[in-house]
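Hey, resending since the last one bounced:
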Amino acid sequence: MYLNKAFLYGNLTRDPELKALPSGQQLASFSLATNRTYKDKNGQKQEATEFHNVVAFGRPAEVIAQYMKKGRPLYIEGRIQTRSWDSEGQKKYRTEIVVENFQFGDGGGRAGGAAGPGHTDEEHAAAPKDGEEIKYPDEEINPEDIPF
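The structure tokens again:
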């Protein structure tokens, strides 16, 4: 059995760029930065940053482009893919992560705290505290009304 799986949690280094392919399918491309802390041979703490090219297709591309901005944290699961093309007689390569699943981060890149995408800080502040009863709406929720 072969395995091609990548798990990344990092911050966007630029706003996602949303494009439509000739087939009409949406494509979002962006870059994700991850940090690693380690001790060098002298025992000094060092930090290294890696930059990953990421692409998402279809509905995930639309959602990521709508809610994510530069500096926001994002968790992605995907596969590693290398594309090649000829440019002015030279062979060019680009290795990227193709998103298969994602989850928004904690909002650490935004001023104002941990309100999730599409939510204001006031809504987040109104969340029930431990021990308080959660008040659910009386009407039934129709699965077709959920936007994703």
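The chain has one domain: 6-116.

Sorry for the duplicate.
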